[in-house]
Amino acid sequence: RYYLYRSLLFFIYSANEADKPKKEESVNSDAPPIIKLSHVLQIMNNVYNNNEITMDDLESYVVGTVYRGLIKGYVHNAGKVVVLAKNDPFPNLQNVFSNPNNYNKII
Fold it and tell me: Which sign, positive or negative, has the C-alpha torsion 38, 42, 44, 49?
């Protein structure tokens, strides 16, 4: 389940990065990438026909994904957004699985 959320967040992140203006045109290029949880929930409801998941459930799964090291960043609870790391927010899964510190977290 956590891999599904990682893939969905990666898809949204990739789409946002493709639509972003180039760095010299951007006003705040030092800001970390942000994904609104409301957008993720809307995509899940529309594309995957999953109306059973709530915002709290989604937030819990995303926090679990961050905890397991599948994405780098944190969930800003008050803003209902995922703030991703500026560098390599989606680490290579082979590196995540090969790290012995993540073994118990991933299972």
Answer: positive
